[in-house]
Amino acid sequence: KVWRNAARIYHRRAEFERSIKAFREALQFFRAAKDEPNEALMLQDLGVVYQDGARIADARRNYQEALAIQKRLGSLFRQSQLIGNLASLESDEENYAEAIRLFEEARRLGVAAGDTSGESTFLTNLALIYQRLGRNEDAERHHRAAVEEDRRRNDRRSLMVALHNYSVFLTIQNRLDEAIEKGLESAKLSAE
Questions:
Q1: Which of 72, 90, 129, 161 has its CA 20 to 30 A from that of 172?
Q2: Residue 115, number of CB atoms within 10 A of its CB
Q3: Confidence band, pLDDT 50/70/90 cuts, at residue 134
Q4: DSSP string over 27-49
Q5: 33-47: pLDDT as tens digits
Q6: Which of 72, 69, 66 is nearest to 46 (CA)?
Q7: Cα separation of 43 and 4, whole Å?
Q8: pLDDT computed for residue 4 by the predictor
């Protein structure tokens, strides 16, 4: 646990090599202990650090290795998270068709796992991809769905982000009155 905490601190400070070293030490420890759930978590965390450090091949390899472990363990929730990580990676690389497929798969697994907390994030990510592709009806449908999901779950923090993203979309569409309304609602949540 100490290595993981140190690695996360290094990551937050953008000290990627120190973070990688600490996560690798934690990974070795969990592998030696044959602790697969924590091994998979370390691989996922390493993937995030690699992705943030633009080491795409390393990120993909770690996410895929962690996903294989989580499939073996049967954790649909963790599989959903990891597929979301892979989708984010594909989006970063502008492989939008694959990113869409993976975000949809992550949503499906999250729902199957009984976890709706990631639903809004996946919907927002899909909306942002559709925006980039100029598929504005799909983008708006996903923005609206993200806001509705956050309202349903009463997740104020996530709702604030979803409203902000929706407001930016509406601004780009030159629907300024609606953009202001969503932006003000987001700001109000931020101030609370």
A1: 90
A2: 14
A3: very high
A4: HHHHHHTT-HHHHHHHHHHHHHH
A5: 999 999 999 999 999
A6: 66
A7: 11
A8: 79
Give the DSSP per-residue string, 48-113.
HHHHHTT-HHHHHHHHHHHHHHHHHHT-HHHHHHHHHHHHHHHHHTT-HHHHHHHHHHHHHHHHHT
Separation CA 165–CA 106 (nearest Å): 20
Query: Given pLDDT bands bounded at 50, 70 and 90, which one contains residue 142?
Result: very high
What token pair was written down for 101?
Answer: 């497929």
Q: Does the predicted model carry a pTM greater than 0.90?
A: no
120 and 162 Cβ atoms separated by less than 8 Å: yes
Distance, CA of 113 to CA of 108 (rounded, Å): 9
Question: How far, in Å, CA of 36 to CA of 33, rounded?
Answer: 9
21 to 7, 17, 24, 104, 178: CA distances (angstroms): 8, 6, 5, 33, 48
Which residue type is seen at 9?
I
